[in-house]
Every structure is written in C-alpha cells, then in structure tokens.
Amino acid sequence: MSQTRSATVVVLHAHSGDTGKPPGTEALEELAEVRYVTEEGLADALPGADVLLAWDFRSHALAEALPTATELRWVHAASAGVNHLLSDRVKSSELVVTNSRGVFDEPMAEYVLALVLAFAKDLPTTLRLQHERRWRHRETEGLGGRRALVAGTGPIGRAIGRKLAAVGMTVTGIGRTPRDEDPDLGRVLPMDRLPDALSSADWVVLAAPLTEDTRGMIDTAALDAMKPTARLINVGRGPLVAQDDLVVALRAGDIAGAALDVFADEPLPDDSPLWTMPNVIVSPHMSGDVVGWRAELVALFLDNLTRYLDGRPLRNVVDKQRGYVREGAR
C-alpha cells in the first residue's frame, strides 16, 4: 500500500540506560525523517515535527516544550503508563496520544506469580540461610484456595488473574466497571467496594492505572482493612500506595509483607526503610522488562507509524482525560 503522507518523527530519549536511544532505528529512518533528542533539546526539535515518540518514559519535558510543537499531531509513549505526558496542555489539545499496551502483559503477570511464589515458599529466607550456611527446616504456604484481589482490569490485570488462577487461587478483580462473571478475574467489584474486598484477600495485587480515583488507594484505612497475614504486590504505579502508611503498617505487623516494583520516587532513595525491611521485596521497576522488550516496543511503534502514514486508525489510543486506553479499543 502506498503511503498517503510523510512524517517527521522526534524521538525523545534519555542520555543512557534503558531509555537511551531505541534499537533497530534503521527501519524507522526508512519510513520518516527522524530527529533524536534528549529532553534538553526537545523544544528546539519539535517545530515542524508531526510525531513524537516518547522513548524516555521518565521525562515530563513535553509539557514545557509543547508551545513550540506547531505541527505535532500524535504522541506515542514507549510505556503502558502515560501520566508523564498528560499535562493540562496536552489534555486540552487536539493531540492523539497512544501507548504501548500489550507489550508488558505476560511478562508482568509472570513476575507477579514469581513474587507470590517467592513469598509463599519463603525463598528470601532460604537464600539468606544458604548465604549463612545454616540448615534450618521450615514449612511453607500453599496457594490452592487462597484469595487474590487484582486491582486493574486492563490487559495486565487480566494476564495476572489468569496466572494466579492457574495455580489454584481464587481471583477477584476491582475496577471501574463491575460485573458478576469475568473470564479472567472472576467477579469484578466496583472501587467503592475496596474495603470489603481487601478484608477477604490473602494477596492484593495492584496493576491499575494512576488516576484521581486510584492515587493513594492503599492508605492507612485500606491497610487496616487487610488481613494481618495478607501481602501487597504493586506493579502498577508507585503513587497507588501511600508509601509512608505502608511502612508503618509493615513495621506494626498489620500486613505480612509487600513486594514493590514501582515507587513514588524512582530510584528509591537510599534512606528509605523499605530497603532493609525483612518482609519487603524491592525491585527497580523491571517487572515487564524481559529480553527483547525494547525491540517489541519499537515494532509496535513502527506498526502504528505505518498506520499513521497510510491514514488508518492507530492502535492503543488513550483517553487523555482518564489516562488509559478504553476497554475494547484497538
């Protein structure tokens, strides 16, 4: 199919690390004129460009640079979350925003299952005792019949629900749209039922987008509603959890433990008590990052860029006011 338009693409990347320049850019450069910039040069690179690939998922530079983007039509996030892009200026503009929904679903679900197993089978203690050359027999927990509450009913939450159900857990979801029968999450409860749902859960998994309704959803009141034997896993967004409240609850034994892959401030500050708490697993925002994930992100963007050039509908269009792709959308 012949392309009906051309494009100038600005690729916003970090200086180095995971969000440095994306791989496989030769295919991108065959489709469009490409300008590679870090956030310091974004405002100068945007004039005349119609597409922005936000490869740096930590940068909030678009908000300040947007007035120079006189031709910009479409912004694509190389991440599932788009909060770093959705300034008031972007929300009120005609810009189309898309994300990388679909790339991280199964890897994140596998990671959650690994964390559940690590806690249930007490693997942190096993590794510690091995390091100390101590032989200490223990009994561990089973998963069959345990109850898991999954907050977030998008593709990631659904993949998590399937994985946990596969090992015999009873799964319940909580989200925007309640329903009695869901193929992946069992029964889905509305957000106003959160206290009741927490009180019966052995495992609470957060995979929800960050919105005004979900920010701080796990606070002192929520933690008080949880069982003292329950554990919290957050692979969604750091601000879903009131972190100071969580530290207090963990120290008091109000819940049994937490596994956190995302934090309000990243990297997690050196002086955070979470680093050294024996009932906490800390990981550096890596739950969806399996070998080849960067190439998958590029492939998704290239598919969307081809659609853009051909005048076809884009995949993963985000509802800018709500901050996520609506269920059932392409």
TrEMBL record:
The keyword tRNA processing does not apply. Residues 25-318 form the D-isomer specific 2-hydroxyacid dehydrogenase catalytic domain. Keywords: NAD, Oxidoreductase. Gene3D superfamilies: NAD(P)-binding Rossmann-like Domain (3.40.50.720). Residues 113-287 form the D-isomer specific 2-hydroxyacid dehydrogenase NAD-binding domain. Belongs to the D-isomer specific 2-hydroxyacid dehydrogenase family. This is D-2-hydroxyacid dehydrogenase.
